[in-house]
Design a protein that fits this description.
homodimer
């Protein structure tokens, strides 16, 4: 069930003309090569989930004057002193609905349930009311020029309401990264349909990107790939397949020819044949392995991180993590960062290893609840160890 | 900063002809009134985030035969015994690329780095290889008829890859709930733009629904609202505004007229004027208060829950939660479930209260990191208490 020597060979020996990169080195390259894209105007109604490129400020105080917080009677509070069920007081009052400006001279609102109409311009109070009670004070939500949502905020449901209330109809949002996908290896193989395109399409959208091109490069043709890379018009290009050591694996050579191959071979499993570089036009290029689990993890750790950074989002993996306990020993090979798939154990708060991605493919993700990233220097975790588990969407761990 | 008496009055006295419902009672009504919608065929390429209405099974074994796991030479493992750098062995071999079926009689693959061509049909091995090494075994990913993704699964990135590899081009996904939004109260007020529509549009989409109608009902007109409710064609209708106790608040009466008003008035703050019921056609109707914070929380706890249930998703609040420590006392009123906004405290793993939604409106959400739900029976939490905090999107708490 645990790693065999083959990946070691692939990772270490095939690229022996250059040392393979540590995961941290590859992540540092991604971070250095990408930055938040500039803003563009976006109507507020289409801005859910977008990241602000600039602060949104309140033009005026919110509310812009004192308002009734609920339906009732606006009164002058000091006149209500002494009111009770045994001593109803008739006081000057104005019927107001929630949100109405407070009439001049009034400083509190008595709810409908605590008063009744007492003749024209009056109400009969059965309780006293304190000054400012049931009033939304001018500026309580926001002072003039206050920041309602700062640059970098990803707009969620309450932001949309607050910005709408401030009369903001359009925001400056970070432009969505344009992603080109170039299929360079065999697409599917021997009658097996391609897994990578459906995964990449969904992942790019999840991370805030837009796929602007999806090209099938003449299979295993290095000149065709180099030519396509040289002209790719996008913020980032993902090349899928052809990253291995075979005589017809041309992705790395084509990238070197078209621009720059910065890294090829990363001490990551799955994903060790990943490459990073730039096209001739200078856009970042991620070479994703063609094997589906390797493509998935190379995307999540490198391409997805780049897209999330370009989109102005939190660049870390889009999975929450929590501490859990290893119900069984989890073994990893020293020298490779391993993505170890896990599922929840029988006892709450525990996880147990699943067979590796190399053995059961994407089922190691779909049949699991999350994964553990075991760094290069570690040989894994003993039974009972406290581990950080990244949980897939919709998974909720009992963590006490 | 903490609750004043007004909401108590609104909650308890205004609806004194019927006792106000506890939160649990209202949630139970939602759960009883909603169920997972039936499936519809959806192309796999459009199915990201959708919930399966039926199991997806593998038609054939995956892989359908033994395959090479990497580029190299397929060999018969027993012939490699004794191979070393000092004793290279020439054995019958066939060059294979990753994914190729294993040629007859071969049972292992030697990576390119551990062999070199040794004349026609032969390779020169410098290491032994074990049987099955670097082979993807037939059925290792899935046995024939194995469930690849079970009914109820929300399709994420790896599922799309696995189902595509299985040749599945279309899935049966739970139909997206059709949501009608009827604006029954004043839309915005006194020149203040409406906050509720932008919030509801984003929240419905977030929860997997589709807004099929958005109607501005003749303002504060009970017959118009009743007539609209009677014919609303959707899976659920949300009526916004007009839920209070004012003489021109007609939402509850209109619902009673058009169908059934099951609950009106819930011991929830914000959100106490929420109503629940059914239209004449039997579809669930949620009466959302018009005040934006109350509308927001009434949506999240009731309408959103209904939509998530209809969509087949996890019905609980779409925020992850974790245990943290109250850095300051958090006070709540006995008798009302309160949504207490919090932000992270100075020390890791702590939260402190923000002013209530009644005081600072939606800013209590946008300026915060999450919220605590304090049940009706509790008067809150002392400083130092362990509390369950629901975290907004993108927030990550250091929880040790």
């Amino acid at each position: 069930m645990l790693p065999v020597r083959r990946s070691d060979r692939v990772g270490v020996e095939v690229f022996s003309d250059r040392p393979i990169a540590a995961l941290a080195e590859a992540v540092a390259w991604i971070d250095a090569a990408t930055f938040r894209l500039p803003g563009e105007p976006v109507p507020l109604g289409e801005a859910a989930g977008r990241v602000l490129a600039a602060d949104c400020r309140a033009e005026h105080a919110m509310p812009d004057r004192d308002r009734a917080a609920l339906d009732g009677f606006a009164v002058e509070a000091q006149r209500s002193v002494g009111a009770s069920a045994y001593n109803p007081l008739a006081v000057p009052a104005a019927a107001v609905a929630a949100g109405d400006p407070l009439p001049a001279g009034m400083d509190a609102v008595v709810p409908l349930a605590a008063a009744e109409p007492g003749g024209p311009g009056n109400a009969l109070l059965v309780e006293p009311v304190a000054p400012s009670e049931n009033i939304e004070r001018q500026g309580a939500v926001a002072a003039p020029d206050a920041i309602l949502a700062a640059a970098g905020t990803r707009l969620a449901v309450p932001h949309l309401g607050l910005l709408a209330a401030a009369g903001i109809a359009e925001v400056a949002a970070v432009r969505q990264p344009r992603v080109a996908i170039l299929l360079a290896g065999p697409v599917g193989s021997q009658g097996v349909p391609d897994s990578n395109r459906p995964m990449l399409r969904a992942a790019v959208v999840r991370d805030g990107g837009i796929i602007v091109a999806e090209e099938l490069v003449a299979e295993r043709s290095r000149p065709a790939l180099a030519a396509t890379l040289a002209v790719a018009a996008s913020d980032i290009a993902l090349v899928v397949g052809g990253t291995g050591a075979g005589t017809d694996d041309h992705a790395a050579a084509a990238l070197a020819e078209a621009g720059e191959l910065a890294l090829h071979g990363i001490a990551l499993r799955p994903g060790e044949t990943t490459g990073l570089g730039r096209s001739g036009a200078g856009i970042p290029v991620v070479l994703l392995p063609g094997a589906p689990p390797a493509c998935l993890w190379s995307y999540e750790l490198f391409a997805g991180r780049a897209i999330r950074r370009l989109a102005g989002r939190d660049p870390s993996l889009p999975f929450r993590h929590c501490r859990m306990t290893a119900a069984r020993k989890i073994v990893s090979m020293v020298g490779m960062t391993e993505i170890c798939p896990v599922r929840f154990g029988g006892a709450p708060g525990t996880v147990e290893p699943l067979p590796a991605f190399a053995e059961i493919g994407l089922t190691a993700a779909t049949a699991g609840d999350g994964f553990i990233i075991i760094p290069e220097a570690s040989e894994g975790h003993p039974q009972g160890a406290s581990v950080i588990v990244h949980l897939y969407e919709d998974r909720e761990a009992e963590t006490g």
